[in-house]
Design brief:
Structural class: mainly alpha
Largest sheet: none
Helix content: over 70%
Order of helices and strands: HH
Mean pLDDT: 78
Shape: rod-shaped
Number of domains: 1
Length: 146
């Protein structure tokens, strides 16, 4: 855009020099007026051309920015989707592990309860056997004492 403005400035300067030369060469006032009008028109045309070029350049820049945004979106959207999917899968795996741990804990608790019940039954049997053995020993001692 700077190049366009510099070119317009150079054209304007050249036109100013040309108009000065043309005015100096004109002897008739009508001819000078005509030359002045042509110079004014040329300057105005140049200014419009520069403005049009600047507007066009600005539009191209905006289009390029929009295209870059779209391209970036095409790249980032799938990555975001993949990250969300991975997070969902990780959450599901964590829930599955939690459920498995809960189930394992319940099974362990059941096994511990069963073992405790078997130990209790074994202790009762041992107590009964000890009482029986004590009673027999007591009976033998009584018999031997008589």
């Amino acid at each position: 855009m700077v190049k366009i403005w510099n070119a317009a400035r150079n054209v304007g300067i050249a036109m100013l020099i040309a108009s000065t030369a043309a005015l100096g060469a004109c002897e008739d006032e009508g001819t000078a007026e005509k030359a002045g009008k042509k110079i004014d028109e040329a300057v105005q045309d140049t200014q419009e051309a520069v403005k049009d070029a600047a507007d066009s350049a600005e539009q191209k820049v905006e289009e390029a920015q929009e295209a870059a945004k779209e391209a970036m979106k095409k790249v980032t959207d799938p990555a975001e989707d993949a990250a969300e999917e991975a997070a969902d899968e990780a959450n599901e795996a964590a829930e599955d592990a939690k459920e498995a741990a809960k189930t394992t804990g319940e099974k362990a608790e059941e096994a511990a309860d069963e073992a405790a019940e078997e130990a209790k039954d074994a202790a009762e049997e041992a107590t009964d056997a000890a009482k029986e053995a004590a009673d027999e020993a007591s009976d033998k001692v009584k018999d031997a004492a008589q």
